[in-house]
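Objective 1.3, modelling of assemblies. Example input:
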Amino acid sequence: MLRARKRVAVEVEKHSPLRYPHRLNFYDQPPQGEITIEEFEICALDRLRILAEIESSYARNRPWDELKKYTLEQCKKYLHLDASSATLQDVDSQRRKDHIGHFVLRLAFCRSEELRRRFVKAETTLFRIRFEDDDRKEREDFLQSRQFSWTPVMKDEVEQYAEQLKAAASTYLPPKDQVDLEKEKYCKVHWTRVPDLIEKRKVFLRHGMAYVPSKEQASIVYEEFQRNLENALLVTLKHLPRLDEDTRIVPLLDNLSQGFLAGVSSEWASATTAANGDEITAEMIDELARKHFPMCMRHLHDTLKRDKHLKHFGRLQYGLFLKVLGLSIEEALAFWRRSFSGMTDDKFNKEYKYNIRHSYGLEGKRANYAAKSCQQILLSDQPGPQDSHGCPYRHFSLDNLQTALLSMYSSQGLTVKDLPEIVAQVKSGHYHVACTRVFEITHAAEGVRKGEGVGGGESVTHPNQYAARSRELEKKIKEEADGDITMS
Amino acid sequence: MTMNIDEEPLTPELMLAFYRRLYPFKSIFHWLNHEHTPTKLFMNREFAFTLQGDVYLRYQSFTTPDDLKKQVCAMNPTRFEIGPMYTARPRDKKLARPGAFQPVMRELVFDIDMTDYDSIRTCCSDASICQRCWAFIAVAVKILDQAVRNNFGYQHLLWVYSGRRGIHLWISDKDAMELSDDQRKALVGWMTVIQGSKEQHKKVNVRLSSRHLPPSLKEALEVLGPAFTDIILEDQDVFRPEEGWRELLHLIPKNYVETLEAKWEKGDRSSYDKWEDFKSEIKSSTRKDTIQRFTSSTAMEDIILQYTYPRIDAEVSKHRNHLLKAPFCVHPKTGRVCVPVDPRTIDDFKPEAVPTVGQLLRELDEAKDTGDAEHRSDWEKTSLKPYVEMLDKHALALMEEVRRTKRDQGGDMSW
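Predicted structure (tokens):
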């Protein structure tokens, strides 16, 4: 029977005009042909955004349906794959992008145990989401194109264990339903191939063999995908040293693997004006800080007010953030002058003015500096003992973090009860998730629910994204309130 | 009749004499190594010593059983533990490339400890254990043994008394040794029924509402049903004290609680009577083959599971690199040796009859006078003998299997 299947598959492949006949891919073969370095990077980055979304969904304990929903949304944005029936689309190039992205990330993530584990988990999840989302016909085609090592259970064996199979089925079927053993097709695999079914006791298990009903056979596919990928990553690791010769690729890979730590830098990195276009003046900053700033900026603002000074990297981090928030150069100069109240005009003009103008691209090489993303804040320019820049979730000690959280955000609804969850995220290294959670808690009054993040389930990847979303929410509420008044 | 703690204090001298003359290093070696000549299974195996004064020494490894014996005698630990086989020798851990030192193989282990039963045993608490508590362990052993053999098909199971109030299971089948941590986790999930903290009343959640039990648990229930009557209702009489039956009421479906509570508040009724009360309540208020009757009986099944199903320490089993006390070590508090136990006669096992170090050394002194041939191992002259023989037999079966596999693989060998 299996042989027959295989023959069909071969024919399908032969007759299919597509290079990638299926939407799903087990990634057995690496992509062939030439790939430009831009393509190399874009494919990987777009895929990484999706994997990062999956990771943060897990870290935030989202239920499966939500995880799937948000991931599919991201997929649509960055890595859309049409069904084979969509003849008007260039499905081949979509699938090629998927294929290349996967293999580039393999290179980036094969290099440590930790990265491998995370990559395999995220990739397997992505595969599972797509598998579930695929239409039945194409899924069947895909399954037939590959040989999965399961043995069908023969009729006499089904009869022999009829009672147990029925009992196993009744654990997942609706209470009144009975499984029809005549129709149900069982297959037999070693239990280690379906660990998730075993863990939940969903199958009948005898002498190490699990009797899997057709409905659950997807589990075997997922497990096989995962196992293949685990092995493939080890093979990739062995071949990696040869890549060192290509100086273009290694820095790129380094960059990619760091993307997992802090989430992928979003488009905020290059934005220079406030999203809502409102002018911000120096006087407004105090209030804005209280209402809308993420913890890192809130901390810098408070430090500036207290010490009437900030060290270099603190000024840089905070100054660029304010610039992107919409503070013009004139207002910025006014703001910093006022904040450094302890010094003479002369000293300020000599030592700081140039710096501030420089960051606005008005001096020196006149570069348009972007505000730092979470990734940069987390990973570069580690703060020393006198510094106050950095990410509080990463760079504060746990008790300081908790005290600071309470003193900054308790007026916005954060309570002691919320701390353990945040601390747990911090401890496991999910700093941006902790930050996102704080955003959700402090904006609960504006209707932000747990899991929603800074809109559409996205987590915080940039301080300006945090502040902009916060202001946006406030504006919306205000507009709604205004609307109500005029209505009445 | 709490177990007597050995009167003699467990001195370092006693321990040293025990290691020198009685500890069956050879048997332990065969059991861990699966072959006569040392393989990676032994040489790359982590041993961890707990020295006098609670100094903990990890990543020890040895090339031969004599090596191990020499080091044990030199360090004279209060006990030592066995970990996994790593990719390299644990004592060379620092020489390995970072990330290259990983656990590879390890017996699948289970740990059942009496303290997890404290909320449902009335005879003892904490560290103490008596013959009556042992009944809980005996049931756990039967269930686990049956599940591991029938469901998972493993054959090389070694049960070891932990020296005080628990029991360990070591599974040495090749398949089992090769399981990854994730697979171990899945297997533990299959075995785990009792879940939830102290603050949670209902600790059994094995089915979606009003569904049947999974077949494996149905099978288990055949053993657990009678055990529930014997241990919980009769012997421990768990539901007699108010605390006990109040707890039971939390698990009984709401519609019966009021009547039963009123009845039980009035008089001092035995657990058995109370259980009968519950059963007759169900009979009188539901009709046969109705959904109400069914949900009531599922509640009964869940209660039986909660009070008798093995309470496994899941963390021990989930990770390959978890260390577990070696068989034949001495429990530092009781002085008793951690001896293998035969699951088929588990009901007759008496923890208080397990030999202590002091007793064994006395036996050895007395035996000396018989002037028996010197080639016999010293343990043969003591009551440790049947236990060492049990381990030897177990190890022999393992070695036999390895030999068979090797022969099957290399068909072109001399035979």
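The interface with chain A takes residues 99, 102, 150-154, 175, 179, 182-183, 185-187, 189-190, 206-218, 291 of chain B (CB under 8 Å).
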